[in-house]
Design a protein that fits this description.
Length: about 270
């Protein structure tokens, strides 16, 4: 087991270079409070600044138990927040969501049960979402007089389209697994949580045969492109396309192709 610190609300384990990150508040349906977000920030910062994708080649994030991935933010904590406290809480949630995007390795959100509010927002900040057939997504904040605060107003539009995102957010309705699949919010469905984890591992088995450096750069360019025009995004892509020619992985990959053998990528 790979341990980076002592946590009370999350758990992390490394098996064969794949990290298993679990939101571990099962009795609270894994709701996000300040402690969960702070512990996630610490762990994700370690992945980015210390590990840098050298040991951890991919991450699967789940919620403890069978009922929820993350049922939302912790309303009991939020109820009496001042405007300043709410700003700090929202900023922390947004920072964690951005850290998921900045990870130098792929991360798959494996959702079973509820992924509502902050849970849907955290799932959307991962590279993509797998879900069980019982999964339920949604941004129900308007039912509480709130709006999404961890990125939901921005990421949902980019994933499912602006008008569909508006309808989901304005109504606060639940989006069941089949609909989530049909609108591109989830990209695969599985009958059970165990089969979903196995499916994520199968996907990682394909990824791990490829260049970790190329995957890392592809992720960086694609995420940065979300905030750019097509022309600006192409400029960013071209710069990174050229830069990768100086990498060891590029030299090894092209050489292996010519020699008709499997490449031995190092991630450099």
């Amino acid at each position: 087991m790979y341990i980076t610190g002592n946590y009370e609300t999350i758990a992390f384990e490394l098996k064969e270079n794949i990290g298993y990150l679990t939101i571990n508040r099962e009795k609270k349906l894994n709701a996000l409070n300040s402690q969960v977000l702070s512990e996630l920030k610490t762990l994700l910062t370690h992945f980015i600044e210390e590990d840098k994708g050298q040991t951890i080649k991919g991450v699967i994030i789940t919620g403890a138990g069978e009922k929820a991935f993350i049922a939302g933010a912790d309303i009991a904590q939020m109820q009496n927040m001042s405007v300043e406290e709410a700003r700090d809480f929202g900023a922390l949630g947004q920072e964690v969501s951005l850290l998921f995007e900045k990870l130098p390795m792929p991360i798959i959100a494996c959702v079973n049960g509820f992924a509502l509010g902050g849970g849907c927002e955290m799932a959307m900040s991962c590279d993509f979402i797998y879900a069980t057939e019982s999964a339920v997504f949604g941004q129900p904040e308007v039912k509480l007089g709130l709006i999404p605060g961890f990125g939901g107003t921005q990421r949902l539009s980019k994933i499912v389209g602006r008008n569909r995102a508006k309808e989901i957010i304005y109504t606060g309705r639940n989006v069941k697994a089949e609909e989530a699949l049909s609108i591109g919010l989830a990209i695969k469905l599985f009958p059970t949580k165990e089969e979903m984890i196995a499916g994520a591992l199968k996907t990682f088995s394909y990824m791990l045969s490829n260049s970790p450096n190329a995957i890392k750069i592809s992720k960086k360019v694609m995420n940065e492109g979300n905030d750019l025009t097509v022309t600006q995004g192409l400029t960013c892509e071209l710069e990174q396309f050229a830069a990768v020619f100086s990498s060891e992985d590029m030299q090894e990959g092209t050489k292996a192709f010519i020699e008709k053998r499997a490449p031995n990528f190092t991630g450099n």
